[in-house]
Design brief:
The complex is a heterodimer of chains A (about 500) and B (about 120).
Chain A lengths: L2 E11 L2 E11 L5 E5 L4 H16 L8 E7 L11 H11 L11 E3 L2 E2 L5 E2 L4 H10 L4 E5 L3 H4 L6 E5 L2 H10 L28 H13 L3 E4 L6 H8 L8 H14 L14 E2 L7 H5 L10 H4 L4 E4 L7 H5 L2 H6 L1 E6 L2 E6 L3 E6 L16 H9 L3 H5 L3 E4 L15 H19 L12 H5 L6 H12 L5 H18 L6 H9 L7
Parallel strand pairs in A: 3-4, 5-8, 8-9, 10-15, 10-16, 11-12, 12-15
Antiparallel strand pairs in A: 1-2, 2-4, 6-7, 13-14
Chain B lengths: L2 H19 L3 E8 L4 E8 L2 E10 L13 H17 L7 E9 L7 E5 L4
Parallel strand pairs in B: 3-4
Antiparallel strand pairs in B: 1-2, 2-3, 4-5
The chains are: A alpha/beta (about 500), B alpha+beta (about 120).
Protein name (chain B): UPF0102 protein ACFQ34_29715
Family (chain B): Belongs to the UPF0102 family.
Pfam families (chain B): UPF0102 (PF02021)
């Protein structure tokens, strides 16, 4: 009679975890379980699950009043991932598990009524939070072991049932250890750029976009290879550094989209939502606490909007904030969550609804044509540095075979390395991140190089923001060409991709 | 008498015996009024003790004490007021206990005593 014990688990708000201390007090009143500390419905039900699981694991359930407190008490706690920690807190309070065994150990997992331990979503961000909070070891469901092993610096144990966990805590019977993290085998090679016939302009634009991290719009008739090019875009990008790969894996874990093999993927993500997608699927949403959407799943990768003129205007406008801030904040009844969403936008569109192979065959009225691409609003298009026009394919085998992904990627990596080195002192990684004022003052170009821009501004063809974007692209073109800084020709090339007429 | 009532009566006998061994004096048993019934009313150094006795022949359908629901608790409180009024005791310390008794066939009865249960 009268026992008190503590265990630890992790609550998730988006991809941010908070370590939750669970206290169990036994005694003083009629038998019953009282759960306090802002639990949601699923967590409230864990009272019944936990009791059934403990009894069916052949352990003694204290037949007294049990108060379970989750702290910090003001934080809303959702889901079934606390089951294991609640069960162990009760067993420790009733003396089945020695007090010291739970010290600095996070317990994660949902319990089945027969005591089996079920997988939960978001194990990876939970472990990151546990590590930050200074916990020493974690017990996770076996199914989540591969995912858990991605986090270094924690002692990770995988358990299949509550009975195994109790034996582990009481007698030290070892649990399943994670396999040594296998080297991610060569990822399936993405489709090769050499497959695309012709389109030298668009290829060049693709290369510049990959090298500088610029957003890209491709306009052209159907069947010219817009989609093919976009699918080959990821192949040009450098592998993700470990930090970014882990951040991406955390988002995928919360979305329940982490591959089962548990290897940390360093391939930048490629996400291509259909144009009938809902705003919630695109930027994230859902009731209670919002779940990550396509923009977050494309974090540090590519978000490809095919037939972007078919997307509803509200959908496209909802992309503006994440484009600018690199994250989305979603507010729902149970609080606001922030998901990272630093993606590269690739848009593809037909020039008009009828979209014939040759523009001269178009039967659309000028008003319809204007309205079609007019759906892409000015503010959104202003953020797209590169616009290119696709030309109809005139020959099945063009004279010069296109370059392969490997060749272009080598140039892209070299250009990125040059840019990273130049901006390292300022904390930027790609040309696309550099603010305009810096490009105009501290890294100003020669008068001669700026002449095309001045002309464009004077003629009213270019906005001030547009000029900044062109400057940014010209630095990337220069990096690709191996130049020290942009000269007149690179600025002209950059302006070519800025051409309003392309959209 | 139905089998469950026989069991209940046996349980109450066991409970009364147990309480007297604890040094309490049983004042009343199965006191009824329109509101309901009190199983055992006893008194000791701490004042009045109102006891609800729950008897089961096994725990297959849950522990006996779990059968004391919020509704039943409210009724016991009401009936207690009626008892106090009937005996001219408007003001005294009252304690509510629950005695959970399991009488499995062929075994001695087990008693669990929840003091100040509600």
């Amino acid at each position: 009679m009268g026992g008190l014990a503590r265990s630890w688990s992790v609550a998730l708000q988006g991809v941010d975890g908070t370590v939750v201390e669970i206290e169990a007090a036994i005694g003083g009143g009629l038998p019953g379980i009282h759960l306090v500390g802002l639990p949601d419905a699923a967590l409230h039900e864990s009272r019944d699950r936990v009791r059934a699981a403990v009894v069916n694991s052949g352990r003694h359930w204290p037949n007294e009043r049990i108060v379970l407190a989750l702290s910090p008490a003001t934080l809303r706690k959702a889901g079934s991932g606390f089951d294991l920690a609640l069960a162990c807190a009760v067993l420790a309070a009733s003396g089945t598990i020695p007090q010291g065994a739970l010290h600095r150990t996070a317990l994660l997992g949902e319990l089945a009524l027969d005591g089996r331990l079920r997988a939960i979503r978001g194990v990876l961000p939970c472990l990151l939070a546990a590590r930050t909070a200074g916990l020493r070891r974690v017990v996770v469901p076996v199914a989540a072991l591969a995912e858990a092993s991605l986090v270094a610096g924690l002692e990770v144990h995988g358990a299949g049932s509550l009975a195994q966990v109790v034996e582990f805590l009481v007698e030290g019977t070892p649990l399943t250890a994670p396999d040594a993290v296998g080297e991610a085998g060569a990822p399936p090679s993405p489709p090769d750029l050499a497959d695309v016939v012709g389109q030298s302009d668009a290829r060049h634009a693709l290369e510049v976009a990959a090298a500088g991290g610029h957003h890209l719009l491709m306009v052209g008739p159907p069947g010219t290879g817009k989609t093919m090019l976009a699918q080959r875009f990821v192949g040009l990008l450098p592998d993700l550094p470990p930090d970014d790969a882990l951040a991406l894996a955390a988002i995928r874990s919360v979305a329940g989209r982490l591959p089962a093999d548990g290897l940390l993927s360093t391939v930048p993500p490629f996400v291509a939502p259909h144009h009938s997608t809902s705003a919630a699927a695109l930027v994230g949403g859902g009731s209670g606490v919002a779940r990550p959407g396509a923009v977050s799943l494309a974090h540090r990768g590519v978000l490809f909007l095919d037939e972007c003129a078919e997307f509803g205007p509200r959908l496209l406008e909802s992309l503006r904030t994440p484009l600018e801030e690199g994250e989305v904040r979603l507010s729902r009844a149970e609080g606001t969550v922030t998901y990272p969403a630093r993606f590269q936008l690739v848009l593809a569109a037909n020039p008009c609804p009828c979209a014939p192979a040759h523009d001269r065959d178009c039967v659309c009225t000028s008003l319809v044509r204007r309205r079609y691409l007019g759906r892409l609003s000015g503010p959104l298009l202003d953020r797209v540095d590169l616009r290119c026009r696709m030309h109809p394919v005139t020959a099945l085998t063009s004279g010069d075979q296109g370059e392969s992904t490997a060749m272009v990627r080598a140039r892209v990596l070299a250009a990125r390395a040059a840019a990273t080195e130049r901006w390292a002192a300022h904390g930027w990684r790609t040309n696309a991140e550099v603010p305009g004022p810096v490009l105009r003052s501290r890294f100003a170009l020669s008068r001669d190089a700026l002449r095309p821009l001045e002309a464009g501004l004077r003629a009213g063809e270019l906005t001030a923001r547009g000029a900044d974007r062109a400057l940014r692209v010209s630095w990337t073109v220069a990096d690709l060409a191996g130049l020290d800084r942009p000269d007149r020709q690179t600025v002209e090339t950059a302006l070519y991709f800025r051409d309003r007429r392309a959209a | 008498m139905a089998a469950k009532d026989v069991l209940g009566r046996r349980g109450e006998d066991v409970a009364a015996e147990y309480l007297e061994k604890q040094g309490l004096v049983v004042l009343d048993r199965n006191w009824r009024c329109r509101e309901g019934e009190l199983d055992i009313i006893a008194t000791g150094s701490a004042g009045l003790v109102v006891c609800e006795v729950k008897t089961r022949s096994g725990t297959a359908f849950g522990e006996p004490a779990e059968a004391v629901t919020d509704r039943k608790i409210a009724r016991i409180r009401r009936v207690t007021q009626a008892w106090l009024a009937a005996h001219g005791l408007p003001w005294c310390a009252v304690r509510f206990d629950v005695l959970a008794i399991v009488i499995e066939p062929g075994r001695p009865a087990t008693i669990q005593h929840y003091r100040e249960a509600f």
